[in-house]
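Example 3.
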Amino acid sequence: MLSKKAAIKRFKKRAALKGDDAQLAERLTAGDISALSKCITLVESSNKKNKEAAQAVIKKCLPHTGKSIRLGITGVPGVGKSTFIESFGTYLTQKGHRVAVLAVDPSSTLSKGSILGDKTRMNNLSVNEKAFIRPSPSSGALGGVTNATRESILLCEAAGFDVIMIETVGVGQSETEIYNMVDFFTLLMLAGAGDELQGIKRGIMEMADLVIINKADGENLKTAKYARREYQNALHLFPLKASQLQPKVQICSSTEGTNMNAVWNTLTSFATKTKESGYFDEKRKKQAVSSLHQSIRYFIDQNLKENDELAAELKKKEIEVTHCKTTAYQAAQAIVKMLLK
Amino acid sequence: MLSKKAAIKRFKKRAALKGDDAQLAERLTAGDISALSKCITLVESSNKKNKEAAQAVIKKCLPHTGKSIRLGITGVPGVGKSTFIESFGTYLTQKGHRVAVLAVDPSSTLSKGSILGDKTRMNNLSVNEKAFIRPSPSSGALGGVTNATRESILLCEAAGFDVIMIETVGVGQSETEIYNMVDFFTLLMLAGAGDELQGIKRGIMEMADLVIINKADGENLKTAKYARREYQNALHLFPLKASQLQPKVQICSSTEGTNMNAVWNTLTSFATKTKESGYFDEKRKKQAVSSLHQSIRYFIDQNLKENDELAAELKKKEIEVTHCKTTAYQAAQAIVKMLLK
């Protein structure tokens, strides 16, 4: 087994630039995994040249994107996200699907090392030809981590992956961001009282299209079935979602691989219903527009940071507003005037 | 009793411009309520000239600001927010405080008409000399509603109000905005099972420094006391707040005016503790900086909207990204380049 350090080195080397950039898009859309890996590295780069190269590739890939189900997966640490993804991903590849797994926040299971040599996590899926696993982007990604993840989804789709799982830890700020880039949002939970107070925020529960109670096996099965009813009742009390979908609760055992079909059937039924109603496409369009506006804000922020004169003036204005020397409105007006001059 | 229409007209007239703008700040800081009312109208105006006039006044007022306790008050409709504010506000004025009440979202109790002629809400407080009540700003406020409310707080402080209550309905998007402009956040609830599922979001519970169980009177008293213990236990399970304050739960009866002293003592103890630890000032500074950045975003958005050429290009780019003709990154880059040229 490789040491962690050696594994990181190997990973970086594997992901590093090689071959002709011009052919990257062609190789990627033909399903070449190393091309996909390389493109995502470009997308996640904090180097402007790399980012421009990535944009050229993505633009060529765009006609091949959009044909997947984008699935957000969240849950507190210990709920078994990586075992679930391993189990569900394997089930899907056996059904002929190609599955990509992306992680968003640095604290998610993926980035704790599954593909960096730690053989204890997703060891089957990580060597499965029909699967692609990618840990969190570094926080230095040009355009922001969210943007990098969004673009990685597009690249995975262009490479022929038709189920994209985006993993996040359900305790941070990233859930809303994930929610805004996926079709369906899945919350993993464990049966047993008090779970919902132990870290999962109510806001996250409200986002979920599907709640999955994991570890429903052996002695846990009975409590899991009971919890399923409880959650299903609780979810009925929330206002109806914009999708008009009533959130569902499923139980499964990731270690025994049971009920994966129930999870998948729920998701495909969601997809069918929302495609029929037009909500599926409408949501994706809104997400695209919102990512444009987010990117605009990103570039404005960059301009404020990178221009020394502006950055100094902003710092000065920040001090002025905190000391009640000027109003936020007037300070902002001055900064924007300077920015646009 | 005035008709609603006549009341609105009277209110508008009363709040309309009159007198010398140059003396507005002087009159306001001397405690002149009609000057305060007029300044807030200027702050809330969608007219640029009015807004500039308002900024001039606020700038003169700034040295007199900051010396209040800013209190956010939220709760679902029916929990008794207006009776609580009436009762608590009256209690405070009896103790010699001057109390200002601002509403944020259009659905809050204030804007349902208390000062627009509806005598059933806050009828004592609205005629109390030591109190000032103001409904929601119109959504057209230049700089945004949040900014208008923030500036209204400053104006109320400059006019000598030392307790500012900002009221919002605990079901919408405005709670985070309020949270970011107050010192302490108060959640009003009712005793009785299921309340927390009936509309209050968990995220709001987590924001609360103080949970107040209202209508703790008569037959409700026992359940209220029980609920108090329950909530106090539940709040212990949340991670400790940045303020290091353990959230408190108090019961009160707004109709009978009981336990208002317990509510006030809790708040003053919070204030003492956070002022000693430095958190109080630190938070206000952060809020000021964040309002500057929010205003910058506002002005950028305005520029994108008001420049016809830019607005048309943005619309075009929005369509391009939704149809996968370009990436959000490239589209944003083009827009920002055009904006800054």
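The first helix of chain A runs from residue 4 to 15. Chain A is about 50% helix and 10% strand.
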